[in-house]
Amino acid sequence: MVISRGVHIVAMAGVSIGAGSMIGEYASIRDANHQRSEEHSFRESGHTAKPIIIGKEVWIGRSVTVLGGVTIGDKATVGANAVVTRDVAPGETVAGIPAVPISRREITIS
Predict the structure, then answer these.
(1) 43 CB contacts (<8 Å, ≥6 apart)?
(2) What span, in angstroms and rounded, lies between the C-alpha atoms of 27 and 5?
(3) Are 24 and 63 in contact (CB under 8 A)?
(4) Cα gap 110→106, rounded to integer Å
(5) Rounded to 5 degrees, what are φ and ψ at 94?
(6) Tens digits of per-residue pLDDT, 17-66?
(7) Global pTM exceeds 0.85
C-alpha cells in the first residue's frame, strides 16, 4: 500500500484500505462530516460518520476527496481531483466533481 505525502484521513466510523492500493498526494478521505443545529454552535453540533471501504489495488489520484459511506471496489481508479460521493464498482474508472464513471474493465477478483 502507498499513502503519499499530505494525505488526510479521518476515521471516526472506520476507513479500510485494501492491499496494493495507492493514494495520491493531498487526497482527503473523510468518513465524518459536521452537523448543524439550531440549539448549538457549529463547533458544538457534533458529527455524522459512515465507514469508507477502499478495495484491493485501487488507485486514487492526487487531490481526490472520498466522502463517508463510500465503497470503492477492487482495482478501481479515481482520477485526480475527483470528489467521490457514491460507490465505485470494481474495475471502474471515475473522474470529475462529483465523480462519474468514464470507463470500466472486466476484472477477475481473487
Answers:
(1) none
(2) 9
(3) yes
(4) 13
(5) -125, 155
(6) 999 999 999 999 999 988 888 888 877 788 899 999 999 999 999 999 99
(7) yes
Q: What Cα–Cα distance (Å) separates residue 34 from each residue in 9, 24, 96, 103? A: 15, 25, 24, 33
40 tagged catalytic: no
Helix (H) or strand (E) holding 78: strand 77-78
Backbone angles phi, psi at 44, to 5 degrees: -105, 5
Single out the catalytic residue among 8, 34, 40, 47: 34
Given the C-alpha cell 482520477, which residue does it identify? 79
Closest CA to 65 of 16, 27, 32, 25: 27
Confidence label for 109 from pLDDT (cuts 50, 70 and 90): low
Residue 54: predicted pLDDT: 98
Computed from CA positions of residues 84, 68, 65, 20, in that sequence, does the dihedral angle turn out positive or negative? Answer: negative
